[in-house]
Amino acid sequence: MTRAPDLDSLKLLVLVGQLGSVGAAAERVGISQPTASHRLSTLERSLGLVLLERSRRGSRLTEAGHMVVGWSQRVLDDLAELMTGAEALRVRRDAELHVAASMTIAEYLAPSWIGQLRGQRPDLYVGLQVTNSERVAALVGSGAADLGFIESPHPPAGLATRPVAHDRLIVVVANGHPWARRRKPLSVEELAATPLVVREAGSGTRETLDEVLGRAGVAMAKPLLELGSATAVRSAVIAATGPAVVSELAVRTDIADGRLAAVSVDGLDLRRVLRAVWPNDRKLVGPAAELLAVARRR
Amino acid sequence: MTRAPDLDSLKLLVLVGQLGSVGAAAERVGISQPTASHRLSTLERSLGLVLLERSRRGSRLTEAGHMVVGWSQRVLDDLAELMTGAEALRVRRDAELHVAASMTIAEYLAPSWIGQLRGQRPDLYVGLQVTNSERVAALVGSGAADLGFIESPHPPAGLATRPVAHDRLIVVVANGHPWARRRKPLSVEELAATPLVVREAGSGTRETLDEVLGRAGVAMAKPLLELGSATAVRSAVIAATGPAVVSELAVRTDIADGRLAAVSVDGLDLRRVLRAVWPNDRKLVGPAAELLAVARRR
DNA sequence: CCAGGTCATAGCGAGAGGCTATGACAGCGA
DNA sequence: TCGCTGTCATAGCCTCTCGCTATGACCTGG
């Protein structure tokens, strides 16, 4: 059984690939050259692969090394998001820029935005508060937050607002599920009649779903399961608990590589706009304006 | 300075979230309850967040805990791909199913496919050989590989073939680059006249690019830089070395969250079909057929 | 009020992983 | 041809992390 490699070694490997030398990579991460050498050997042993072609004039990645670097890169990128996200949650109190966001945005978009902003301004501390869209509006309105991001269908009155991204709720099922092989879209009635795995009442995702179904003139069946985060819903679907309705942001990669199947529903528009909000009377300046610019590009 | 959390602790946290108890999660990963308890405390301290709400009847995730679990989930998923990928490279020799794939497919799609197949058949060992599309065809033709995946524009003669996915090369630039703010698409001539960061000659990506440009009647300028993997190209673009042409698979997430900008090119069709290939005379059976099925669904 | 469940603390032992010092070897210039 | 410089590897030591067991403190339910 191969144990999980530690992240520092992966980072080291990536650096060796970029810098072409074990010693240089060691210096970059602040460890001695022998230590780096030893760590890389350990990594190779633990993966059972030769990753580096060592010579007296430096080290180059082998074929396998290139592959592992590619995979490591993604692990490390995601880890960086985790770290910036965690930091933003942590420094909430005494940050220079106070951001409030609804859950989906906070989980899938905000860390990346904040990370990019901090790439431009490394000494800027950003605080992130996550609540539901209604409370985001209140926080921005009261000045407790400088900038908010909401997923609510109704832009709140009294606040300046601007769309930053689009999102769509989708019906997903595990691969074994009969719906995965359907060729015809589901009817709204069929969907409404089926017990689903959904987010808990009060969440933006759930609200959107209820409202869209209501507008289509149907009432949702009693949920199969109510869960407190998109991640939990996703896990339940993968475990084949049943169909679910969830933001495409949460399952984008699962669908891209076939782990989950998206089921289209006839005549149901589950798109929604993700918006930035800020106090109406103030023009956005400084870090808040920069963050908005980062969020808006794309 | 917050150090990188170790992956085992993240996994433990995810399990606590699912199982609702520290002890149960500890048992699941094969460590003692006190050890798990201690590790979780360490994780909380290192992130500076309270992740669990402990009670005498179990432990529940806090708000911050939910966020961290979501971010961790993605780190762990990527790590799982790394591990299956590495294993597939390692057991190449004595695997029960021999797969050969070109680089882009091997890096971005194959680990997920193999992971899903191994989810169904845990004791099946899959070996992965990565080379260029031409050699993949040769390996399959000679029987050295049971199933191949190629990104070449010309399906090789004498082999059964079936499309499994689509891919597209795209022009990407860093956000500061002038092209990032363009509203008009680039002309083919403009693109061809600009030195680009590209994959090395001989790679499927480079071949596709050369061929498409040739068909459009232009010749590519001398490359700014030639690199040996899509990951390296991506890094160069992020470092603002210059524009690059790379598979969308490599930069999908970067574009989705605005780290890189895609530039459209007028009248250039850079789509390509990714195909499975296998010997013409044999009907696919067993693991090879199963893997093809996994790759084809979506 | 005890039984069975939870999580936390204490103390100990082993091993991972850090460091410095040194060796081996290739390439380059004098 | 002979150092000089730069590469990576090995050896030996020491620290501190992280695992374990044993135990405590505390709810909940019978």
Automatic annotation (TrEMBL), chains A, B:
The answer, when asked if Zinc-finger is one of the entry's keywords, is: no
Record-linked SUPFAM superfamilies: Periplasmic binding protein-like II (SSF53850), Winged helix' DNA-binding domain (SSF46785)
Going by the UniProt record, its keywords in alphabetical order are: DNA-binding, Transcription, Transcription regulation
Instruction: State the Pfam families in the record.
Output: HTH_1, LysR_substrate
Molecular function as annotated in GO: DNA-binding transcription factor activity; transcription cis-regulatory region binding
Q: Which domain of life is it from?
A: Bacteria
Q: Where does the record place the HTH lysR-type domain?
A: 5-62
What protein family is recorded? Belongs to the LysR transcriptional regulatory family.
Stated name of the protein: LysR family transcriptional regulator
